[in-house]
Amino acid sequence: MNKQQEFLELFNPIKDNLSRYCRSVSYSYDDAKDLMSETILIAYQNFSQVLEKKAFLSYLFTIASRVNLKKKDKANKFDRIMDNDYAHYQSIEESVDVNILYKMLQKLPPKQAEAIVLFEVNGFSLDEIKEIQGGTLSGVKSRLKRARESLKLELNYLKLEKKSEVEI
Questions:
Q1: How far is it, in rounded angstroms, from Cα 68 to Cα 125?
Q2: Separation in Å, CA 36 to CA 22, 41, 68, 78, 130
Q3: Is the pTM of this model over 0.90?
Q4: Which end of the chain has fewer CB atoms at under 10 Å, N or C?
């Protein structure tokens, strides 16, 4: 089996997970496409260095995470809010609730947003997230806890806001 076939055999079953991850940590549809493309290119170029094919999923997400953080650092986009350019996404992702969630994720610190997406959306274990993000297991747990608390506060605020609109 050649390099391209082996890469595609490992990549195809997980490409949707990578796509969801890229969309959730990006500011726009175009940023998500760029992140995904750059991740795939780097992963393919360095594919011969992957010794353990079972670790391909973590390898891919580690690359995406690092590329994403590097882009955000370079562009200093931390204060920018998410665009409403999700018209290109299909089915459920066109819903208002998903757009609200994406906006809420963008308000979190990047490492917290990434941890919650990896754990809750993509189903990574705490150890896998530790490997992708670096740091310690307790650091990952802390980021997840803080992210959940922030999202809960934001959701409660939205509920109160909607309730007061109805009462008026």
A1: 20
A2: 6, 9, 10, 20, 21
A3: no
A4: C
